[in-house]
Design brief:
about 325 residues; disordered N terminus; mainly beta; about 5% helix; single chain; about 35% strand; five-stranded antiparallel beta sheet; Immunoglobulin-like
Length: about 325
Amino acid sequence: MNTALKLTGFAVGMVAAFGAAYGVGDVVDPVAPAADTRHDSTTGHGDGGHGTESASADKVPGGLLVSDRGYTLNPVSAPVEEFAFQITGLDGRAVTAFEVAHDKRMHLIVARRDLSGFRHVHPEMASDGTWRVASPLGEPGSWRAFADFTPAGGQPLTLGVDVSVAGVFTPRPLPAPAASSTVDGYTVTIDGALQPGRTSKLTLTVSRDGAAVTDLEPYLGAYGHLVALRQGDLAYLHVHPDGEPGDGRTRPGPEVTFFAEVPSAGTYRLFLDFQHQGTVRTAEFTLSAGAASPDGGVAPDGPATPSPSTTGGHGEPGHAHD
């Protein structure tokens, strides 16, 4: 259903516009003390790069909360061409100490609510704890911004908040599940199926003009980065591949293998960032995870098997990497 909506405010960097989004996060889960470990990380920074820890029923998937474990994502006032925010602690002050994770202290991912836009950028932090980057938001609509970070001495955490871009918003339908995606002359195929509540092995193979790409370049310390977003609430899963450059066993393509666990049955949009010949590109996929059975397996009508396709351009108006 392509219903055009008119958005009349530009919420990026506007504290007043942020209030409603903050309220949603605060109702779901008020700011919890730092010692509260009810919500372990589900952002895919587990040991060995094997995706996420178990997304059991007592855990909230990453990116659904604006406040968690004593930390809050707070957009701050900034020019419309810029996105700015702080991570504040229980005392309300901006946090300034962060661990380096995958070559950066902060990963900012934004996605339009209909999953037709995706960008992964890396802000820079000022001395007062304010992170700033050229606005990664694109076409009009409601966007979800995810701050993916590790506070000093803490565990990986992903916080999320909704922001909006003014203008006429025409939602785009999500492409059907597909086993291949094309981007800038590259074809990426995916082998594997998502199984809710269980670790799933996904192998992505990169080729160009029919030839396997065997010289992928490290990007943020890996040969590929995979983000999965659940259709509807945009529950966030950031997965990193099995192995890393220089470990003596991981080859620079054409295959990049991931181990991921999705929290529930449903439809997911996957975004693979990979670098070749100095340029980062993003391949996109839609996958369906089947209904979980009582024993933790997949019910007989399990995950839909992706059918070969070349629909990879749903992410327009484009991607940005920084």
